[in-house]
Structure of Trichohyalin-plectin-homology domain-containing protein:
Amino acid sequence: MPTLPVEQAPNSMSRRNYLVERNRLRVKAYEPTRRAYEEEELRLAKQREEQRKKVLDNWRSSVSLLADNSRPLPGAARRARQAKDQAGATMLTESQTMKEEELQRKAARVASNRADMLQQLKDRREFLRQWKANEKAYEDSLMASNREFARQMQERERETAQMTKEYMDRVRASNLKELEQKRIKQKEREDAELAALRIVNENQERAMAAEERSAKDMKRMMQIENEENHRYAKKKQQEDKSREEAEIKAMMEYNEALAKRERRAQEQKRDQFKADFEETVAKQKEFRRLHNYEEPPESIRKRNEETAASIALIKQEERIRSAERKREYCGELMKQMREKQEWMLTHLDGI
C-alpha cells in the first residue's frame, strides 16, 4: 500500500481524514481480488448447474417412461390401469398356473422396481454427498483465501502505519529543529531592530528641531504659492467663462442663421410649388379653352384633393426633417460642450 498523502491544512493529519484515506486505499487494493473471487464463484456456480443437469438427465434416462412422458406407477395401481386398458376382460376362470406365473412376474417387477428405487436413492445420496463435499471444499478454500488476504492486508496496514509513524516522527523532528532556528533568527533580528530603532530615534530627535524650523518657512512659502495659484485660477476661470460665452453666442448665431436659411429655402420651395401649380392650372384652362374640353367636376375635385394631400404630406416631411436636423444639431452642440468641460477639468493647470 502506498504512503498516505500529507495535506497542507490544519486538519491534514486528523484521525478521520487518515481513516478515510486508508479505507479508500484498502478498497482500491482489494478490487482485483474481489473481482477474481466473483468470477471464480460464477464459474463454480455454472459448473455445479451443469453437473446437476447431467445427473438429472442420467437419472431420467435410467427410468422407463410411458408414452405420455410420465413415470409408471409402481404396484397394483399400474397393473390395474394396464389391465383396464387392454382389449377384452380377463376371464375369471383362469387356471392356478397362470395365477402363479402372474404372481411370479409381479414379484419380479416389484423386486426390479425396488432395486431401481434403491439404486436411484443411492445415486441421489451420492450426488448430495459429493455436492456438499464440493461446497465445503469451496467454502474452506474461500475462507482460507480470505484469511490469507486479511492477514496480508493487516501486515500491509501495520507496515503503512509504521512508515507513517516514522515519517511523522521525522516531520516532527524537522519542524522542531526549524522552529528552534526560527526562534534564534527572530531573537537576533529583534536585537538588531532594537539597536537600529535607538539609532533612528536619536536621528529623529536631532532632525525634529531642523524640521520644526523649516516647517514655518515651508508653511509661509505654501501660503504664498496658494495665493498665487488662487489668483491664477480665478483669472483662468474668468477667461474660460468669457471664451465659453463667446463660443455659445457664436453657436447660437450660427443656429439662427441656419434656421433662417432653412425657412428661406422652404419659402422658396413653397413659392416655386405655388407658381408651378398656378402655371399648371393656367395650362389646363388654356387647353380646355382651345380644345373645347370640359372635365367633370368630380374628377377636378378628386385631383384637387389629391394635390392638397400631397402638399400636406410634403410639408409634414419637411417639418420632420427640420426637427431631425435641429435635434442632431442640439445633440452635437451638447456633446461638444460636455467634451469641452471634461477637457477643462482634466487639463486645467494651477488648481
Q: What stands out?
A: Confidence is low (pLDDT under 50) at residues 4-9, 87-92.
